[in-house]
Amino acid sequence: MAVYIDINRCIGCRSCEVACQRVHGGHGHINVHYVREYAAVPVLCHHCQEAGCTMVCFTGALYKEGERTAFDVEKCTGCGLCALACPFGVVWTDKIAHKCDLCQGREAGPACIATCPANALSDDFDLATRRARERTVRAAAVGGKR
Amino acid sequence: MTKVLVPTVCPYCGAGCGFYVAAERERAIGIEYMSDHPVSQGALCAKGNAALEILYHPDRLTSPLKRKGEGWARISWPEALDLVAKGLGQARKKHGPRSLAFLSSSKCSNEDNYLMQKLARLLGSPHIDNCARLCHAPSVVGLNKTLGAAGMTNPIPDIASSRCIFIIGSNLAENHPVISRWIHRAKDRGATVIVADPRATPTSWMADVFLQLEPGTDVALLNGMAQVIINEGLIDREYIGLKTKGFEALALEVKDFTPQRTAEITGIAPEDIVRAARAYATSPASAVLYSMGITQHSTGTDNVQAISNLALICGQMGRPGTGVMPLRGQNNVQGACDMGALAEFYPGYKRASDPATLKFFRAAWKAEDLPPGPGLTATEMIEAAGSGEIRAMYIMGEDPANSDPCSEHARRSLESLDFLVVQDIFMTATAQLADVVLPGAVWAEKEGSYTNTERRVQWSHKAIEPPGEARSDREIICDVARSLGLQFDYPDAASVLEEINRTVPQYGGVLRERLEGSSLVWPCPTADHPGTPILHSMGFSLAEGRASIVPVPFSPAAEAASGDHPFILTTGRLAVHHNAGSMTRRSPSLISREPDLYVEMNREDAAALDVEDGDEVRVATVRGETAAYARLTDRLKKGVVFMPIHFPGTNILTTDATDPEARIPEFKVCACNVFRRD
After folding, report:
1. C-beta atoms of A14 and B33 within 8 A
2. ipTM for the assembly
3. Which CATH architecture has domain A4-141?
């Protein structure tokens, strides 16, 4: 499982950022970036299958646990190699590493998904494309006219 | 002690999202989402997520204060109440009850507002108002006149069944973010979205048709769309014939608003005007959503009426997915108006000028005499404070020294009062001017009902105690009333709601027990009435059951760009701040995201002034000037600049030109100039 983003829906409100910070003691793991005035994109850990961050982590603080890229804070030395290895810029270090833990231990699942006002975030891999297909089908049915 | 989850209503905007405050050992420790909430379905915006940050803020007022020289002295409640009774009592005795004015709060509950207006009127003053005056007064005036009821005609989730959504003068993606989910749901079902705004915003990202109009030209656009609809025969003749009156006059008024002429006034391409008009008129269910981009103009009431006209001639009313939807800005601005905290209305929109209203409330309140209205509006009170007509004021949970237009003037007026008492949670700019400051409670520290923008009445429970000696607003108002010799015996919020059930017909069936774990949409006249999510499905509560089509001529904004002031300044809100900012600027996770006042301007305009992104600039109008940093953008057309309203600097600049009927100031248009700081 990961958090999937429907870019069509993101309104750049930063609710996910504040929610993530709130449930992680002030350290947020999701960041909303803006493409000038035209779009907003929330960026967070992809929980890669072959995760570069786990490969470079010599203490095993970052490791794969099923689909999740997990983090054991006790083993982290704060060396920062993971931040260098991550191609998406979603792991970073101050004294220790910080990254999305999919709100482990939170019964209702990731807070960012629950709080997203526009339903831009979900745990459904196919949702964004399914919505696009549905829009296409409806447009076809009414002759493609808007 | 175990953790308890207390259901509350978010204290920020009018969407009325619910969430649980998790409390343990008398302390709020977290938020849990409310996934079965009818509007938010568990979602919360950034402000909602940060709501607990203000609870334990070190700036919270924790005891009554009185002015002592340049500073403040903590005093006891009995002393504070004594001072308030003397201050208000002396002004009343010396200058008469009409020398008192009261500002109630659209942040506070229905019960708080009901008590505040009752206090004002029992003391003999007709001067009671709330900050709805600064956001949706034209909706109250305009929609009452055209449709016979002021409020959203359809509920928020109903937007999902709309096939064409026309958003004009609202950046709801930032200001009511959860509404976006319902718009997207409609889009997935094939709806067309039209957005009209002088500024490209995250709301316009949702648009199929974006109409970037010049600030203050809304009537021209709406008349122009009506012209296309009439000209192309897209009107709903049957609906017009059965349910409305006044169509002929409108047809005459808009006749000359051809797409070409409308384009010249608004700056929108003629083909886009035609496209928008056709989409709105021909869809099986079209809704108009609007907000302060429509109301905060010297032509605010005209703008609202022009929206009503469009909906009426197309018959887009009274069915699912249709309607006229004013999006209200405060958690309880709808409720504060319903409760009669308005200069021209007693509770339940009973006209203050109608003898029958006074007779009804004299009996209900066992009062010998009550003042007829209309009283002074929020903006007029400030004016009257400056001229000496108003001598003492009681302000609850409002910050006019910050939020009023031309705010330096507002500040001087409040300073000239004989006595000012302010009840608030923080030492706001207005509280700084007071003689006595009373510490109130925030939403989680008291209970009561709140009415959101779709007329949904919800009960918010008390999760924790107020800090220090702060008390619930209901208790404070009752104590002030008693210290002035009035009988105000309301042991809890429920007992106030019981009285509201008897005196406000729309709330007749909104009983405390029916709000437990549920909500009701007014009108709900009786205990077994299910509520009325969609208004006007059976006609209108106006003469003959017909809505009024009121033709409106186009008149330009009060100020136009000139040689000395070549730019048009328009103002608005940001996703991470709320209104005058007394809460959000104290909320670390919000203020850290937008810490400073900025002015957004077109890149070409900036280049001509040699201003680069991030440069410090001065923005000046004839009323004053303020420092801000420049943010360069393509969001705005040349000649228009934008500033957020959440910082004290902005309203130093805005004009106090008002709408002649609704008395709302024209926050959205004024002429300004921008200079480099060096």
Report:
1. no
2. 0.93
3. 2-Layer Sandwich (3.30)
